[in-house]
Amino acid sequence: MKRNLISSALAVIAFTALLGLVYPLAVTGISQVAFGANADGNPDLIAKDTKGDPRRFQPRPSQTGYDADGTFFSNRGPNQAGARSFYRGRLTAYIRLNGPYNPGLTVARVPADAVTTSGSGVDPHISVANARIQARRVAQVRGLPLGRVNQLVDDNTDGRFLGLLGEPGVNTTTLNEALGR
C-alpha cells in the first residue's frame, strides 16, 4: 500500500509539472514563433462598436457590447420567444439602415450574420454578402464611388482557413480603419 501511495503521489507531481507547466510553456512558445504579434492579442481581431454610424460598416451584433474582457455567446434557442423578438428587431434595424440604399432589400435577402451574434460576441468578421449590402450605404453616405468602397471590402476580406475551411469573411475593424484613411 505504501508503494501505491508513493507511486500515486509521484504520478500527480509528474503530471502536474507536465500539464501545468511544461505543456502551457511549450504551447506559448510555439504560438509566439508561429503567430507573432497575434499570439499576444491583436486589436484587429476585436469588433468595435460603431453605434449604428451609417458612415461605417457594422459588425455582427454583440451579446457583450463588444467588450473583449468578457466574451460569451447569446445562447438563444430557435424556439425562444426572446430570440424571435431579438432577431425581428435586428432585421428591422438592418433593413431600416440599409434598405434606402438597396432597393428591393427584403428580410429574405438579409444575410444571417447581419442579425445573429457570433460565438464570442467580438468577432469583427461579416460575410461578403453582408459587406456588399452595407457598401452601398457607406459609399453614398461618405460620397465615395461604390467601386472604391467595394475594393476596400475586397482588400479586407480574409480567405478560407487553409484554403478549405469556412467561408471568406470581411474584417469590419480593419475595413473601417481603411475608410478612415
Description:
By secondary structure, the chain is mainly alpha-helical. The chain has 2 domains: 2-39; 43-180, no CATH class. It is built from 5 helices and 3 strands. Strands 1-3-2 form a 3-stranded antiparallel sheet. Helix 3 packs across helix 4. The longest helix has 34 residues, at 2-35. It is elongated, with a radius of gyration of 22 Å. The mean pLDDT is 89.
Secondary-structure map:
Blueprint: H1 2-35, H2 81-98, E1 125-127, H3 128-142, H4 146-155, E2 157-158, E3 169-171, H5 172-180
Antiparallel strand pairs: 1-3, 2-3
Short recap of the structure:
By secondary structure, the protein is mainly α. It folds into 2 domains: 2-39; 43-180, no CATH class.
Mean pLDDT metric: 89
- Counted by DSSP, the helix tally is 5
**Helix-strand makeup class:** mainly alpha
Q: List the domain count as a whole number.
A: 2
Low-pLDDT stretches: none
The strand count comes to: 3
The main sheet comes to: 3 strands, antiparallel
Q: How do the strands line up in the largest sheet?
A: 1-3-2
State the distance separating the first and last CA atoms.
Answer: 72 Å
Give the fraction of residues assigned to helices.
Answer: 40-55%
Helix-strand pattern, N to C? HHEHHEEH
| Rg computed from alpha carbons, rounded to a whole number of angstroms | 22 Å
User: Strand percentage, roughly?
Assistant: under 5%
Label the overall shape. Answer: elongated
